[in-house]
Amino acid sequence: MSSSVDFSKGLPSHPEKATLEGKNKFLGFWVFLGGETIMFATFFGTFLGLREGTAGGPTAEELFSLPLVFIMTMLLLTSSLTSVLAMFSMKKNNHKSMLVLMIVTVLLGAAFLGFEIYEFVEYVHHGLGYTTSAFASSFYTLVGLHGAHVLFGLCWITTLIIRYSRSGITLTNAPKFYVASLYWHFIDVIWVFIFTVVYLLGIGGA
Amino acid sequence: MSTAAATKDKSVLWDWLTTVDHKKLAILYLVAGGLFFIKAGLMAVFMRIQLMTAENDFLTGQTFNELITMHGTIMLFLAATPLIFAFMNFVIPLQIGARDVAFPFVNALGFWIFFFGGLLLSVSWFFGGGPDAGWTAYVPLSSGEYADLGLDFYVLGLQVSGIGTLVSGINFIVTIINMRAPGMTMMRMPLFCWTGLVISILIVFAFTPLAAGLALLMLDRLFGGQFFIPDMGGNAVLWQHIFWIFGHPEVYILVLPAFGIISEVVPAFSRKRLFGYTAMVFATLVIAFLGFMVWVHHMFTVGLGPITNSVFAIATMGIAVPTGIKIFNWLFTMWGGKITFNTAMLCASSFVPTFVLGGVTGVMLAMTPVDYLYHDTYFVVAHFHYIIIGGIVLGLLAGLYYWYPKMFGHKLNEKLGMLMFWLFYIGFHMTFFIQHILGLIGMPRRVYTYLEGQGMETMNLISSIGSFVMGAGILVLLINVVYSAFKAERITVNDPWDARTLEWATPTPIPEYNFAQTPQVRSLDPLFYEKMHGDGTIKPAEPMEDIHMPNGSILPFIIGLGLFTWGFGMVMINMENPIIPPAVVIGVGFVLTFGSMFIRSIKEDHGYHIPVEQVKKIEKEVS
């Protein structure tokens, strides 16, 4: 189990999986995301079971507006794209371009989060408080948990950018950036499901 | 990079608080799980004293409710799970020929989070009483309307300890997949590693729904969520579904490692290889798969309709098939073997008939129409205690006696061991066999007393006496641990049982790096293979080199403490007049937890190397 890596030809083509530690992180994080998927599935199930339970409060059709959600979706999808491009830069050992793309990812994510906060404030003004109905509770819990994941991801990626702003890409930090970008994709995929299950079904009234 | 000198000059306490060594963490798990086991066991004894005579007033109904809740919750989450993790932590890296688990830091993190979660649940006694809604915490009984502060401790304590269990599960999966020694293919892994892998996968997919469900209940109780309030559009049955989607796989999370232990102990003391190894692996996978599609059998009387009930009834009966395969394989392993009946083997072999009894009543309960009769009676109590004690506890006891010499450097006393076994085994059947009949004549579970003249007095008395005998058995075990620590002969050989698998190829006591050279595995039962076809020693797969080791860290302890503080602050929201504002306590917990994670993230810790000369010196000392 020697951890020696041949550097004679520069950084290996998959720096995130070149060491045993990197391989472990890579697999461990995938398994963690598997667990997260099931946790979100439970919240989705709860939402689907309770979304008709508006108890006389505002309904999904009255509240949701597609233009806002469309902008949010585009922001998050684009941020996912820039994080993929950052990983391509990493594999090409282009530290500067990776950092720039990661910064763009963070900015897009922050914009998404801003819109989400604006959205929640709007809904509260329209009379949908957290305790209004089972629909309200399950909506805020599911979408809010996603928002909390976005916030955590922003803090995490920002920390990595600042910590490794000058170090270049190494076999230690490559797995860290890689799993952070995996996490970011996961958040994006969850949003795609939220967009479909919460907003499209809510407006379409299926 | 520091050298080996960095490990010295630590006080004993600091060493144990900061350790990331899987062998030390195993002992921490064993001690913590053992203490919780004794605590919950005493609760059971108190309940049996209460039920010894009709209309007894030893306990009030409220205290009885708190005891049934805490007994079940502690036994499943804080006793059985950590005891299993103790053996998995100790044995799995050794059995696959690894120096440690994949993430030693996360391993320590898992232990401390579990420990502080358990502590959070336990401090409920000092704040107005424990949770009282049963370990299943069904709404509306567990809602803010009916349940007090104890249930907030339940929700947050389990939430925290569940995080610990989850990260440990992820760690074991990665360890088993990535850290195997050369030649240790998946189909050469000992069955204990296989069951360890499978239950870790179950943990990842079952503890996450529990985390979600507990979050929903917490939001309902603390922040006025409406998930389970029918008037506000909520649904009370939703909790039952989420709970049992977790709850049924949890049974397999606990029992499969016990199957694994039996599959190690039975071949070792029958002096034969495990019969039908491939079938055993396959059966384990099938049980795990089916375990996720039977949860409704806990809810047959809810009224989900005949189609739903039938589908889940058939799936439940289907689990009997792979389990039956396992039972026959253990019997065929013993068949024609040269059996040594020591304590470990007695526990392992008596597991088989006991577990079959539990399985038979399981199939009886799976028949939906008659389940309406059995539901919520002592028949169910008897059934799951046959699975949990007859299956899991006997498996754990077998594992304890089997691996004790490797863990502590001496065997447990055999005479006291035999005494423990017979007391425990007779006491167990006395306590629980009769409860089948009590259930069939209609005694409901979870009720703190019963009336005279209903024909239940004698049977309850017998059951209570049985529980005292069982308690005496555990007392003998504790005496044995202390007695053997002082009196037993030290083990100096690698392999005191003349066993078959790789953990017995390490020296006793095991150096912190486990294997000076990573072993080369040539077969299933690698040590036995080398005894038959080689010179009895495992061949190394690499030259003697400097050994890379991880540094210890106090951060896991602080993260656990932070989560405890956070959870306690959350409970304070529901307290009448907290002295400190809850937000402050929650904030402190938050800062401790995320601050430690932040430090861990920005500080690169590459560990240290043990130089090859020192490895050679240590190897000379232990051999």
Outline of the structure:
The complex is a heterodimer of chains A (206) and B (623). With 206 residues, chain A is mostly helical.
Written overview of the protein:
- Chain B: It comes from Alteribacillus persepolensis.
- Chain B: It catalyses: 4 Fe(II)-[cytochrome c] + O2 + 8 H(+)(in) = 4 Fe(III)-[cytochrome c] + 2 H2O + 4 H(+)(out).
- Chain B: Belongs to the heme-copper respiratory oxidase family.
- The complex is a heterodimer of chains A (206) and B (623).
- The radius of gyration of chain A is 20 Å and the shape is elongated.
- Chain A is mainly alpha-helical.
- Chain A contains 6 helices and no strands.
- Chain B is mainly α.
- Chain B has 18 helices and 2 strands.
- In chain B, strands 1-2 form a two-stranded antiparallel ribbon.
- In chain B, α13 packs antiparallel against α14 (457-487).
- The longest helix of chain B has 35 residues, at 61-95.
- The chains are: A mainly alpha (206), B mainly alpha (623).
- At the A-B interface, α1 and α5 of A face α5, α6, α7 and α17 of B.
What is the element layout, followed by pairings?
The complex is a heterodimer of chains A (206) and B (623).
Chain A: H1 20-50, H2 60-63, H3 66-91, H4 95-125, H5 134-163, H6 173-204
Helix pairs in contact in A: 1-5, 1-6, 3-4, 3-6, 4-5, 5-6
Chain B: H1 12-18, H2 22-50, H3 61-95, H4 104-122, H5 149-178, H6 191-223, H7 236-270, H8 277-291, H9 306-334, H10 343-366, H11 368-374, H12 378-408, H13 414-440, H14 457-487, H15 526-533, E1 547-549, H16 555-572, H17 582-602, E2 608-610, H18 612-622
Antiparallel strand pairs in B: 1-2
Task: Tag the structure with descriptive keywords.
heterodimer, A: mainly alpha, Four Helix Bundle (Hemerythrin (Met), subunit A), 6 helices, elongated, B: mainly alpha, Cytochrome C Oxidase, Chain A, two-stranded antiparallel sheet, 2 strands, 66% helix, disordered N terminus, cytochrome-c oxidase activity (chain B), transport (chain B), copper (chain B), metal-binding (chain B)
